[in-house]
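Reviewers of the previous submission asked for a worked example of the structure-prediction workflow described in the proposal, so we include one complete record here. The input consisted solely of the amino acid sequence. No template or homolog information was supplied to the procedure at any stage.
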Amino acid sequence: MNAKLDKYIEKIRDKKILIQGLGLNGGGVGTALFFLKTGIPVFITDLKSEIELEDSLKKLSGYKNVRYTLGCHKEEDFLNADIVVKGPGVPPTNKFIRLAEDNGAVITSDMEIFFNIAPCDIFGITGSKGKSSTVSCVYSIFKSKSANSFLGGNITISPLSFYNELKRVEKIKNSFNYTADATMLCFSGDTKDEVLSKSLKALYHLEKSGAPGFHTPAIFAPDAETLKKRKIFIKENFNALDFKNELKNSIFEENSFDAWENSVKNIDNVALSALPTYVENEINSMFVDYEGKIYLVIPIQSRQNFKEIETELKNGDLDFFTIDLMRDNAPRLLKFEKIAALALLISLAVIIIILLIAYRNILYAASALIPALTGLIACFGISPIIGKSINIMHIVASMILIGICVDYGVFVTSSYKDYHGEEGINITFLSILICALITLAGFGALMISSNQAIFTLGVSVFFGIVFSFLSSWFVIPFLMKNKKN
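From that input alone, the workflow returned the following structure tokens.
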């Protein structure tokens, strides 16, 4: 669920909401449906008459918790409102808006609400002229790269109208166990038959084009139209007399298949798609039911195959959409990467200050920092050796290493600074060795993972700990002994 949405809905649950302007182009309808679908009553006022707004009113006819003032605006409606959602063409100087605001109502818009609750990245375009053409061009670019791109604003499309589409994608993601780089092919429809038919059509298109295919349950559980064609084929091509004659020359008795013959005669009443329970359960697990729509979600294991399938289906103008977690979350990952890198530098600076204050000696502070720096160098340096590029998991590993490796440096440096004999130093080294081995066992286990992110984390921390421990064992004692000498 979207925490921002939950918080917002909870905040306005008992508020009186007034939408100023239903309109004819869908913007007001989209805003109204956003509130109505979350169970919040709304009051709508519009200067247009009921006849003029007939098409828009039909779209809201299934909801009982909506009331109207049409053909005019009434002051009492605005005075009774806690929140007024004004249309994009209504100026803030509008006398009814001013009246509501002076009475303590919150004045907002569909755009402002969407910005506060959006579970996605938003690209905003504004200006004096050319906004619509510019935003349409940018939208086309995004849409060509990700099917989960949406266009809205003061261009007759309320961004709240596609909020449910954004939630749909999250619902599908949360219905499956997926990894950070998962890719999924999705088909939607009003019934399972419709969805299965779309997936089968897409599969046939891929087979003809020579592109990689995918596994659809439609192969095992065909849609009603396919079953109908199969039954017609059986009725037109099965000859009972020829079948009996063939049985005479076989090891079977003539009446051995009477029951089967009867089922062919009554083929229209036979369920050809009957499947074993475990197959049926597996197929059902691939469907997601969301707000009256059925979604079939098919994982695509190979990212290269996923790209080829997506490109070919787009070229064939087929009805589908895709979910690529890595691509869809790329902006968030980049933002996190920048913040994490800055946090890493800040943490290093804070550690240096603490060590200088604690030891009041640059050499001791530098000595205690050596294992951490060695661990960081190993963390980033091991990637080219194993043929992996540096990514966000290295930053995560670095933050883990700093916390662990500084301890090694502090313990060893302090054991030499406050010298308590060779026995005390040996006990310190033994303690650090045990801690290092335990840490290596924990993070080393991640290296057997087939998931690249987990593998990278395991390798980075493992080798960071190894080199950090070695520097604690050899480099710090060397420096400390030379200082004393």
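Residues 223-274 form one domain. We consider this example representative of the routine output the project will generate in years two and three.
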